[in-house]
Protein: Fas apoptotic inhibitory molecule 1
Amino acid sequence: LEKMTDLVAVWEVALSDGVHKIEFEHGTTSGKRVVYVDGKEEIRREWMFKLVGKETFTVGATKTKATINIDAVSGFAYEYTLEINGKSLKKYLENRLKTTNTWILSLGGTDYRVVLEKDTMDVWCNGQKMETAGEFVEDGTETHFTVADHSCCIKAVSSGKRKEGIIHTLIVNDREIPEAVE
Structure:
């Protein structure tokens, strides 16, 4: 196993199916480019004569499109930027804050990461898309699912304020779980 001597960039990307680690090796003398996602080699190119350019690959169960841009800054210095779904990582994560809710909870000594995709109402738990049952209730909707034999419910109620919109709350075993900030 060769050491990652040309490692130039590492990113952590939170997607619905989990937090993924992207590592990039760039050999500026050999022209080598290697992309790892969660420790698994996705792309390997040897002897690239063009040292600038881009590498595109997918991340996670949702096959989210990711691109690493390689740009020359000056002389032999390079800048590496990551794009997710065509947006800079910063823009992508800002947009994700608006379109998803994430909760971290511990049940029976195991940690679970629950993500709600607000646009589709899909619920993910530790990388798995959950079977859910939705119902209308007096003050909004409830989305029911089970995690490790614990009944869970995401309540969606109107905030009554147009700017705030709908408030989503995760309830597990009649206990409200605070939202996580990723």
Remarks:
- Residues 89-99 form the longest helix (11 residues).
